Amino acid sequence: MKRGFTFAETLVALAILAGFLTLGIALIISHKRMSQETTRASEIEAVASLVGSFIRQDSVLKDASNAQEIAGRMNDLMIILNDTYIETSGFRDTEVSTITFHRTTDSEDLYTINYTLVDEMSEREEVYHVVVSLR
Known about the structure:
The chain is of the alpha+beta class. The chain contains three helices and three strands. 56% of the residues lie in helices and 22% in strands. Strand 1 (94-103) and strand 2 (110-119) form a beta hairpin. The model has no long low-confidence stretch (mean pLDDT 87).
């Protein structure tokens, strides 16, 4: 004679299945969140590299002859980067909040440019540095 499952055994089996299903959904949501965070961090690093290269190759900055010209160009660069360059490069929700500079050595030609990127999606702020040789 075949014996069927009792009502209590069926409820236990359903409870176990519900537990596995709940854990599975929680893992999927957690994986998706971690994946999005990783993607966003990669995008921020890409923007940092893009901005650093842009600053490093800026011919107007390289031709600056004194601190006042450099400071003026820093303001111009921040406007250019935030208004057009970053967004037209395919990145949104990231902007340059500050750009500062200081002389790296006793040499008049070597400067460190510090720029801060703010990611509005993850509410994250990172400071980056670029060394530029001015002519």
